[in-house]
Amino acid sequence: MSSLLPLKPAAESIHDREIDPLLVALDDPAADDILSALSSSTARAILTTIYEEPRPASELASALDTTLQTVSYHLERLEDADLVEEVTTWLSAQGREMAVYGPTNTAVVLFAGAEKTEPRLSSGLRTLVGGLAGTVVASLAVQAVWMTRQPPVQRFVARAEPEPTTPTTFLSAYLDGPGLVVLAVGAALVLAVTLAMAWTQRRV
């Protein structure tokens, strides 16, 4: 008769868990712990194996053809470096709980000299998008003011009334009026400023 106990409940993979990649600069103090924990080929093999599928220490020892003591030693160091963690527990055939280990992050990336890349790109995009949005608003405002100051065009019918402004008529007037000129000039200025900022930051 099979046991009613769930000896091996499914362990969530990195795709099912709410975890993020780990980005660590080489001059970050955490990089020392990570490099130290991964200095052994056995530790790297353990980490690679549990990225494929979370496993307890005993299965890791069997998969890597090494001793349980060796695996336990490296798992402790990997835990201290915040690279692995206990994701669930299994019950052995003897009824003992076994910790099942999985990666703490979806990926581990050590980098050097790229810490300013993202802020510079984000700053440039914010400048470009914000400038273009302001230019569009300004051009629409200029067009609206210009149209209100124009004499209304009336049709001579029984009761002469000015034609109402519709989105279609406004767009037509916008394309032929000062609004489009303001948009074009403003967009050119914003693009020039953004390129100048990017060139300056690249030389720093």
TrEMBL record:
It comes from the Archaea. InterPro entries: ArsR-like_HTH (IPR011991), HTH_ArsR_DNA-bd_dom (IPR001845), Metal_resp_trans_reg (IPR051011), WH-like_DNA-bd_sf (IPR036388), WH_DNA-bd_sf (IPR036390). One of its GO terms (molecular function) is DNA-binding transcription factor activity. The keyword Nucleus does not apply. Pfam families: HTH_20. Coiled coil: none annotated. The chain crosses the membrane at residues 125-146, 180-199. Residues 33-117 form the HTH arsR-type domain. This is Helix-turn-helix domain-containing protein. Keywords: DNA-binding, Membrane, Transcription, Transcription regulation, Transmembrane, Transmembrane helix.
